[in-house]
Amino acid sequence: MNEALQQFTTGNSELAAFLMASGHRLLDTTVTNARAEFTFADLDNRSVQESVTAYAANDPIGGKSLMESFRLVKSLAKDSVEASFKSGVRSSVSKAQHRQF
User: Fold this and answer.
1) I need a surface site. Which of 1, 25, 75, 81 has the fewest CB within 10 A?
2) Do residues 58 and 18 touch, judged by C-beta distance below 8 A?
């Protein structure tokens, strides 16, 4: 595939959990104005935008993977914000970048 990798960033933890549970790779977690933002990449067979549309349409997804993803997203958000306050600068936490469900 020669197309450029598409990225999508959201501060919505529920949407982030849905994207993660859908298999999208978490590229980065950043903090801006004390708010965690999550950046995701397209899958080979589905764009992030298609998954965002599926989320908005209440498409079903496995409950267990969604809950595991939501717990991870909450943990990443908390860790990112804490790191941001400790350092006093824009922070990035990437401990789970390669963890997929």
Assistant:
1) 1
2) no
